[in-house]
Amino acid sequence: MQVKTKERDVCRMLFDIVEKPKDFLMCKSFNVYDNKYRINIYSKRLVEGIEGQYISHSYFASFDESDMSLNILS
Fold first, then answer.
1. How far, CA to CA in Å, does 71 sit from each of 9, 40, 60?
2. What is the pLDDT of residues 40-68, one digit of tens each?
3. Which range has the top average pLDDT, 8-12, 25-29, 33-37, 67-71?
4. Are the C-beta atoms of residues 37 and 58 closer than 8 Å to each other?
5. pLDDT for 7
6. What secondary structure letter does DSSP report for 18?
7. Fewest beta carbons within 10 Å, which of 8, 20, 66, 71?
8. Torsion angle of the four alpha carbons 1, 69, 9, 7, in this order, in degrees rounded to the nearest 10
9. Are 64 and 71 in contact (CB under 8 A)?
10. For the whole model, what pTM was predicted?
């Protein structure tokens, strides 16, 4: 499995575990080391009439290739 595919899979698998925020904008995950990933959930919000984005949730997780499972570590 290519790294980019894993990163997309990690985001998809995360939403099988946690609920997607109602103001969800995007999910980005990146490999930190070995099979550990940082996953950032970006949401949108209005501040004085201007729409912006912010990291609403951030997770540190491990990805097990043998059974294709994601485990949230923090």
1. 13, 15, 9
2. 999 999 888 999 999 999 999 998 888 88
3. 25-29
4. no
5. 78
6. S
7. 66
8. -70
9. yes
10. 0.85
